[in-house]
Design a protein that fits this description.
Structural class: mainly alpha
Oligomer: single chain
Order of helices and strands: EEHEHEHHHH
Strand content: 5-15%
Radius of gyration: 16 Å
Helix content: 40-55%
Shape: globular
Number of strands: 4
Length: 156
Amino acid sequence: MAWAPGQAAYVPVGHRYDDAPAQLSIDVVMEHLSPLLTDRGLKKIAQNVKYEIKILEKCLKQNIEGLYCDTMLAAYLLDPGRRQFGLDELALDLLGHKMISFQEVTKTKKGEAAKFAKVPLAEATEYAGEDADVTLRIANELMPRIDASYMSVLPD
């Protein structure tokens, strides 16, 4: 989660590896996050929001309200001819920032099954915080252009 550029947090709930620190239960975390997720007045930004909705609604039985921007969709609306709309590519193209890749943080090769639960907490925090921060920064770049063109960036 990011609430301002350079201000992000990661809430670990499922890391399982030797010497993994104690973590809050998913029930406790969702009890505290649910009011934020359902607050229509609090704008939510995501990269590929359909995936976030799938996880929250189907796996955690949690709805999300107040969706403001899907950066993947915003990038598509502004440049439908672009080849890739992934966060790594958008960060590099729009912000000049090279992201930590999932393969780097999980220490896997493309195509190998990776378990984020095995990633040490410090590395997972850096990776997840960067994802949230960069998604917010990209939305801050794209939304003024979307607003100026009167388009919408939320799926129906």
